[in-house]
Amino acid sequence: MNQLQEYMRNKEFPMYLQDRLILYYEYRYQKKYFRRMQQEIARYSSYQLIKSIKILSGLSEQVIDKIVDSVRPEVYLPGDILMKAGNTAECMYFLVHGTVATYTINGKEVCHYEDGDYFGIVAVMLPERKRMSTAVALEISKLFRFDKKLFNICFPVNSEIYETLLHNALVRLKQILTAEEKQRLYIIESANKQ
Q1: Domain range spanning residue 39?
Q2: Same domain, residue pair 19 and 100
Q3: Residues in Cβ contact with 114 at an 8 Å cutoff, skipping those fewer than 6 apart
Q4: Which of 23, 94, 101, 194 is a Cys-bridge partner for 144, taking CB atoms 3.0 to 4.6 Å apart?
Q5: pTM for this one?
Q6: Does the pLDDT value for residue 101 go beyond 90?
């Protein structure tokens, strides 16, 4: 655009013609090239963000490319429910930025997830399980939704990343079950005191 403006000044185009040419080029650029450029920028940004997620940082470029092609960006506002305990799992999430809290089915807070974390892995990796927790955005949060059906394509069974994710899923399952048990004992104790 700067070259066009410089050319028009050098050729001493009248102002009305300069304005019309700029308008024309903006229109042409936006309609023809801008969509393609937007897609390239979005893909590059997604690629960089996926690489920045702790658990995915050591993966090959080919695997990251598969993940980038598979994820869908989503934005949640404070108080939005991302997933609900007891529901069937359709996806897991990679948290790009923001804060999300998870709660047991009884409302006991389990933990907070922040930039670079992931969650929803338990029900995705352990298909006989329904969602064990409810996830709620605590602030405006950008996430990548990663559908369950693409999980095994990107993370084949017995791969190193699959084993790491499985281990982490089992650790998180234990955290949730421990929080639920503590809540249950608290309720029993409170009832006995009355």
Answers
A1: 2-46
A2: no
A3: 95, 98, 99
A4: 94
A5: 0.70
A6: yes
